[in-house]
Amino acid sequence: MPARLRHGNSWSDACILNISSRGLMIHTGRPILRGAEVELRRGDHVIVARVMWRDGGRAGLRTEDRVPIEDIVTLGQSPALQLTAATQDRRKQPRAEERSRIQGRAVEFAGVLVIAIALAGAGATMIEGALARPLAAAEAVLGR
Predict the structure, then answer these.
(1) Based on the structure, what is the number of domains in the chain?
(2) What is the full DSSP assignment across 19-76?
(3) Would you say 88 and 75 are in contact if contact means Cβ atoms under 8 Å apart?
(4) Residues 12 and 48 in one domain
(5) What parts of the chain have a pLDDT lower than 70?
(6) Cβ(23)–Cβ(48) under 8 Å?
(7) What is the pTM of this model?
(8) What CA–CA distance (Å, rounded) separates 34 from 62?
């Protein structure tokens, strides 16, 4: 089951391989030291635990509080446990990237609009200048 692991000040992905009332076995690509305190998040559940053993990417965690096994297992509503993390946004607040992208598009649109108006004005001035002499000559010939 996919989860997020905080060790120190940084976060990384983790996968819960086994879960019991007082502990978990996880797999993570980030090395964590034996005896370290970690925080594991799965949905709204926060589990604070101590690393009891480590073997490569696997680690055994022991918790002081009871782990709500049923709530955590049924959180994903998946029929079977998966060893790969789902591609989902784990943040509670929306990312600033989307808002920044929309603002950037608006600024780009405004810039292109200003340039288009300036080019249209310059083109109108050039056309008026190019047609002014022949029209003035035609008016002089016609006697106006």
Answers:
(1) 2
(2) EETTEEEEEESS---TT-EEEEEETTEEEEEEEEEEETTEEEEEESSPP-HHHHHGGG
(3) no
(4) yes
(5) 75-94, 144
(6) no
(7) 0.49
(8) 11
